[in-house]
Automatic annotation (TrEMBL):
InterPro entries: K_chnl_dom, NAD(P)-bd_dom_sf, RCK_C_sf, RCK_N, Trk_Ktr_HKT_K-transport. GO terms for cellular component: plasma membrane. The chain crosses the membrane at residues 15-37, 49-66, 73-91. This is Potassium channel family protein. PANTHER family: POTASSIUM CHANNEL PROTEIN 2-RELATED-RELATED, POTASSIUM CHANNEL PROTEIN YUGO-RELATED. GO terms for biological process: monoatomic ion transmembrane transport; potassium ion transport. It is a multi-pass membrane protein. Keywords: Ion channel, Ion transport, Membrane, Transmembrane, Transmembrane helix, Transport. It is found in: Cell membrane. Residues 114-239 form the RCK N-terminal domain. It comes from the Bacteria.
Length: 333
């Protein structure tokens, strides 16, 4: 390999690593020279290299000292040349660390992990979901993709921020979407419902195209876009409007409200929703009979899913069928 080829390889190496190689080579050179110039004061080459590092870094322990004029002249060159390289290396390394922290906060760093959860869109729902993951001490790595945030505080551990549009393949590559296990797409509250749903569906297509095995949960606001979201590749479609509208309806027409509506929502901080297929022994039973069964286990049956449609608090006499899914509210503790 000729000199030009070696030079090209050298300049392809990152700056910090090049500086480190230069410092190591320079210290080794001065260490070898001082050993041959003063073998009595520097019995081994390692002693010479140790002296070069101590002197070049201006630490100066004084355990090895050149006594000859030639040795001292060499020490002067070492202080002038080696000291400058060491200082420049440390300054460059510090600048790189600061720049990396800034890039991390501003969402410009590629995520290298795998088997992680990807949250798309920074809003109140995403923040609450992240808080629940942290509070429950779940051992999960989370990547947030959002284009509205300029930066994310680094204390939002264990979240890794990637700034940009989740429908952009370059941004998805930064989030290492090919190695992710799950993605949650939340609707953009700043957009109109129709536009927000279209954005969510487009994002679903982009995610599925980059990782066909990815489990995708998509929030949809309008009912007629549910099938489109499923066609786009969403494994689960959540219509937050349905659930919230039902809660509002029951609160408006309740004859004897016991407490403010906002306190009702606080209940969910200590509860979790569970979804599972209808047990065989429940087939043909009414919603009331199933509700009584789960009430005995301190759980509340609140809805069923039939043919892709969510039925919240259906009539008590409604009979459950094979293929139905149950939504149950259970305590976390």
């Amino acid at each position: 390999m000729n000199y030009r080829a070696l030079q090209q390889i050298y300049f392809r190496i990152p700056v910090v690593l090049r500086l480190l190689i230069t410092v190591l080579a320079l210290m080794a050179l001065f260490g070898v020279l001082i050993h041959f110039l003063e073998p009595t004061n520097f019995p081994t080459i390692f002693d010479g290299i140790w002296w070069a590092f101590v002197t070049g870094s201006t630490v100066g322990y004084g355990d090895f000292v050149p006594l000859s004029v030639t040795g001292r002249l060499l020490a002067i060159f070492l202080i002038l040349a080696g000291g400058g390289f060491v200082t420049f290396y440390m300054a460059n390394l510090s600048a790189r660390v600061v720049r990396y922290e800034q890039d991390l906060s501003s969402g410009d760093v590629t995520y290298k992990g795998n088997d992680h959860i990807v949250l798309i869109g920074w809003n109140e729902r995403t923040r609450q979901l992240l808080d629940m993951i942290i509070e429950r001490e779940l051992d999960e790595s989370v990547v947030l993709i959002d284009q509205s945030l300029q930066n994310l505080p680094l204390n939002k551990s264990p979240i890794h921020f990637v700034r940009g549009s989740a429908s952009d393949d370059t941004i998805l590559a930064k989030a290492n979407i090919k190695e992710a296990k799950c993605a949650v797409i939340t609707s953009d509250p700043s957009e109109k419902e129709q536009q927000a749903d279209q954005s969510s569906i487009l994002t679903t297509v982009a995610l599925k195209g980059n990782n066909p095995d990815l489990f995708i949960i998509t929030e949809i606001l309008t009912k007629h876009q549910i099938q489109n979201a499923m066609r786009a590749g969403a494994n689960t479609v959540i219509r937050s409007n349905d659930f919230m509208s039902t809660l509002f309806f029951h609160e408006i027409f309740r004859k004897d409200p016991v407490k403010p509506f906002n306190l009702l929502l606080d209940v969910f901080d200590e509860q979790q929703f569970k979804q599972f297929e209808l047990p065989k022994e429940m087939n043909g039973k009414t919603f009331l009979e199933c509700s009584d069964f789960y009430a005995q286990h301190e759980e509340i049956l609140i809805a069923i899913i039939r043919n892709g449609e969510l039925l919240i608090n259906p009539p008590f006499h409604k009979k459950l069928e094979t293929g139905d899914s149950l939504i149950v509210l259970a305590s976390l503790y």
